[in-house]
Amino acid sequence: MRVIYNRIFLLFGIFLFTACSDNDNSVLTTDNISIVEANVSFAAEGGKGSIVVAATGRIDVSVDPSQSWCKWTRADDIITVTVLANKELEGRTVLVKISTKGGNTLSVPVTQKGAVLSVSAFNIDFEGEGGRKAIAVKNTLLDPYEVEVENDWLTYKIDGDSLVFTAGKSNVVKRESTARIILNERVIEVLAQQINIEGNYKMSYYEYEDTIRYTRIITLTAGEKVGTYIMTGDLPEGVNSILFNYKNRRLTVYGAQNVGVHTYENPLWGWVSRQLMLGVMNFTQYSAITYDVGKSYAAPLTLTKENKIIFEFGDDRTWLGPSDRIIPVEAIVVGEFDSGYYYGRLYTFMLMVLELEM
């Protein structure tokens, strides 16, 4: 029976040892000294931590004197570790050696991460009208970073954890400037680009069921609201202007716009004025038209080596059909309305392309 009890006690002891090994309260141990708790992992900013020791006798503490970034003091069984800020990009480690008269020594590693200087974005886009763009800057050191800007059209201001760039209105198609963020030996470059899409464009398109590609000269001008552009110029009769949105280098036109008034003489009723409304159309599947404000026709910005801007319009995946299938938007249309009644499509702009006149 005693053998059985001894085996049970042995198994219970193994269980306790395993459980303690998984617990941070017993980090290191020898015959007459153990580390009860150690909180000595630091970020680049540095700070204070502690090592709690349990020993049966007097202990001695030492740290490599060449590692002056790590200091220590002791009060009874608590060793307080003070770490200076790390200005280097690499992390660092030093051992705190704790020994007893019997010659037993435990080494506790004190670790510190390298300095961090990072930004939330490496590229900034400005529209031709200019404006303000902010990026977040993470600096783990107390030392402030410096900023150098390549061209004077781009200015900056440090506002807390943000670096705010400002650009004025541009009179060229494209300009760019590099901002260098500097802290000690660390340098981060941020590229700011400003593209001005205002100007005269050649607009080409097909009419519905027509093989002729029509061309018109139109003008894009910045609207009162940031990110909006107004198309005017050689538009079809009655169409005064069309509103576009520009964001993330993408030009988008939405349906449900009042774009003008069509006035003409009807042989039966005399002079008639009807509201012109912008919509979108699908030819491939349904030859359907919708004047819903949520439906759109869009074009990504293409900029050639000669700084010629091209917008080639296509489906914006905004029109859901039966069973939530995507119906491709292949054209914008202008329809006639009067007192809530729809009188049909008047103009079609299919496979529309805008090319900046150089």
TrEMBL record:
Residue ranges of coiled coil: none
Residues annotated as domain BACON: 62-113
InterPro entries xref list: BACON, Ig-like_fold
Cross-referenced CDD domains: BACON (cd14948)
Official protein name in the record: BACON domain-containing protein
